[in-house]
Specification:
The complex is a heterodimer of chains A (about 230) and B (about 240).
Chain A (H helix, E strand, L loop, with lengths): L1 H79 L4 H15 L4 E11 L8 H13 L4 E4 L2 E3 L5 E3 L5 E3 L3 E3 L3 E6 L2 H9 L4 H7 L3 E12 L14
Antiparallel strand pairs in A: 1-7, 1-8, 2-3, 2-7, 4-5, 5-6
Chain B lengths: L1 H76 L3 H17 L4 E11 L22 H13 L4 E4 L2 E2 L6 E4 L2 E4 L2 E3 L3 E6 L2 H8 L5 H8 L2 E12 L12 E2 L2
Antiparallel strand pairs in B: 1-7, 1-8, 2-3, 2-7, 4-5, 5-6
Helix pairs in contact in B: 1-2
Classes of the chains: A alpha+beta (about 230), B alpha+beta (about 240).
Chain lengths: ~230, ~240
């Protein structure tokens, strides 16, 4: 009888020990599973990074080939002793399109900001929008048909006027045209927490439409440099 | 009676043990799957590194080709007046686009997160976020600098070009798609008097940031240097409509 009791106690003791051990292992694995969550996220991040680098590589490679073609064009002209104003003209045109010295057209979006009884747009609202559009890959932007170029600034002069570039006063409704990837621009602005989502949630009047063949006018005025040493 | 009790206890324990073992097996199966995925990650990492290297190398070649192109262009156009004029114009265009390193008179503005404060040391009504520099602050400073007619701007090593944006993703600030962090050194070329006058006025951007607790320093310089844009300017959607 006494011997039997001992056996039972020992058996139960061993079993409890094993059970506790198994439970600890279990806990450890659960912890690991959390790490796996991050590891998985990293995987998708890695995939994004991979796509980014591939795209950047392809862009660079394309540009490199273009440059090489131009170099051999110039070399050819030099050896034939011919003038190169035509090639230069082509290169200038490309630069001027980007600088805003020509009228441009293409597909894009038109966003209209209108003051209402409760909410008035300030210059910082417009400044934000331009930043967001550039982030979403807009290639040309205008505000009330004034081209936004590299040195365009926006400032408040009163509640009713916003000043743009030199002396262009603009007022509501503000019509912002942007040419670029329509899907990218639309989704960037309208996602939860995005520009349109936040402003319209706060009672501002805002409207966006995708449009084909938008025309954006060129920048009026000279672009010259006084302080950069040449 | 006593024997029956022992039997029931043992029975329950055996049952629990079985359940625990089954769970354990299942988890081990999962764990194996995890190990497999780990393998994919390293492969993917290698792949990312491979493409980054390819890009870096191609970019270096591209820079070399830019220099070569410049040389050929110049020597091809110095024989006739029309071409050499166009060549000068193109040179100016490339400066304006941000494709070259530039220098001249200007200003260096440094804005920095205030690290002397923590959530514990500030007042209950204050927000620690006020003491940090945000993407919007930098964008605002860039706008003010343009208002002061500067001709080139960079923040840390990033040249601000026409289609640059300054945004944040979580805690990091992105310029031209690259991460930049505090302290932010904003270099600009233009009249130092005009720049300091425009920025350092009551209720101006610097005043606003300083009142918030951000550390700001600004000084005019006889010569500053601004790097060229470290990427490719390419358009896919706009066409000439002249």
């Amino acid at each position: 009888m006494k011997k039997g009791k001992w056996t039972i106690i020992v058996t139960i003791g061993i079993m409890s020990f094993i059970l506790v051990l198994v439970m600890f292992m279990q806990f450890k694995v659960v912890e690991q599973t959390d790490i796996v969550g991050i590891e998985n996220m990293r995987d998708t991040e890695l995939r994004e990074a991979l796509a980014d680098w591939k795209e950047k590589y392809e862009e660079t490679n394309k540009k490199l080939e273009e440059n090489r073609a131009k170099i051999s064009e110039y070399k050819e002209k030099i050896s034939e002793n011919k003038e190169v104003s035509e090639i230069l003209e082509k290169e200038l045109e490309e630069a001027n399109i980007i600088l805003g010295k020509t009228d441009v057209e293409g597909d894009g979006v038109i966003i209209t900001l209108t003051d209402n009884d409760e909410k008035t747009y300030t210059y910082s609202n417009i400044l934000d929008l331009i930043n967001e559009l550039k982030f979403a890959g807009a290639e040309a932007i205008s505000i009330n048909d004034i081209r936004v170029i590299g040195n365009t600034y926006i400032a408040n002069i009163s509640n009713r006027y916003i000043i743009l570039n030199n002396n262009n006063k603009i007022t509501s409704p503000y019509v912002i045209k942007a040419i670029g990837d329509q899907n990218n621009m639309q989704s960037n602005l309208s996602i939860k927490g995005g520009y349109i989502y936040v402003l319209s949630g706060n009672g501002y009047t805002i409207n966006m439409e995708a449009k084909k063949k938008i025309k954006i006018y060129k920048h009026e005025g000279e672009l010259d440099l006084k302080y950069i040493e040449k | 009676m006593n024997k029956k009790n022992v039997c029931i206890t043992l029975g329950i324990m055996c049952f629990l043990l079985t359940v625990a073992i089954i769970i354990q097996f299942n988890t081990i199966k999962n764990a194996n799957m995890i190990a497999g995925q780990g393998g994919v990650s390293t492969e993917l990492k290698d792949e990312v590194l491979k493409w980054k290297e390819k890009y870096d190398q191609t970019f270096k070649e591209l820079e070399k080709s830019e220099e070569e192109l410049e040389i050929q262009r110049e020597s091809a156009s110095n024989n006739d007046l029309v071409s050499s004029e166009k060549q000068e114009e193109l040179k100016l265009a490339n400066i304006l686009l941000g494709l070259t390193q530039v220098s001249g008179r200007g200003t260096i503005i440094t804005v920095e997160d205030n690290k002397n404060v923590t959530s514990e040391t500030i007042g209950a009504l204050e927000n620690i976020s006020d003491y940090m520099v945000h993407a919007e602050d930098l964008w605002m400073i860039v706008n003010e600098l343009k208002n002061a007619r500067v001709e080139a701007i960079s923040i840390n090593d990033e040249r601000i070009i026409a289609n640059s944006s300054i945004t944040c993703e979580g805690n990091v600030i992105l310029i031209n798609g690259n991460v930049v962090s505090s302290p932010f050194v904003i270099t600009s070329i233009g009249s130092p008097e005009a720049i300091i006058g425009a920025l350092d006025r009551p209720d101006g951007i610097i005043d606003f940031l300083e009142r918030d607790g951000v550390i700001v320093n600004m000084e005019g310089k006889e010569k500053v240097t601004i790097p060229k844009y470290n990427g490719i300017i390419d358009v896919k959607y706009i066409r000439n409509a002249d």
